[in-house]
Amino acid sequence: MKSGFVSIFGRPNAGKSTLLNALIGEKLAIVSPKVQTTRHRIKGFLTSENYQIIFSDTPGIIQPQYKLHEKMMQAVRNSLEDADLALLLVDGSGNHEEDHAIFQSLHLRVPAIVVLNKIDEMSAGSIQIKEEFFRSQAYCQKLVKISALQKRNLHELIQAILEFLPEGPPFFPGDDLTDLPTRFFVGEMIREKIYELFHEEIPYHTTVVVTEFREKSTLTKITAEIVVQRESQKAIILGGKGSMIKKLGTMARQDIEQFIGTKVFLELFVKVRPKWRDNDIHLKEYGYP
User: What global pTM score does this model have?
Assistant: First the structure.
């Protein structure tokens, strides 16, 4: 039996959350074409008779501009500390020199597999250039080429991971997929719909707090607060006569019902908290320890 912790690192939009979801076979991490969607460290457990791999999806590595960003980068550092293996995810359609600079800045103390993602969008020549470049780096013990979106070569990636994991019993029960509570994922599903429906600064100035999660015999009652920084942002999320928040609630409720397997009554409220992204008290209250 092999068991260990594998952390996924990379630039924003490299496909880390898509890869986690593809490996686990469940949607644990929200995804969006917009950058900086992931704010927390999200663990997913892949368990078989012979192994348990505890994957960690981490926020995209950025230069912090707010205390919220600092909390996000702390999640990256925490993932570095307990990892047995690092997956260094390369956006195949991006600038590999930028990826290289980020990987060097991690100062890894564990083995690393460079994972060249989005090969479905790359030419054979581009794949060869990036492959030769990363294979020559000291931090690269192995390189695997995949498409997380198309779930290509994931078996090869798992086999490569197992080469580096230590022997030992599983850390978590075999039926568990994560160690995070259901209400966390409910909040993330609501936040994902904000990324889908709103543009420019709105998603980045917004967070979601689930204030009530009550399971009844026939349905689950959920109340959540959408926190924004300005009254103008509140007006945009509400929409004319409440049209946008109604649409948001309908879309989120459908995903939540599919996730928890029961009917949901969802109430959404919008609250204004000026500069919450730079307020330690608010950040702690909203789940950013």
Answer: 0.91
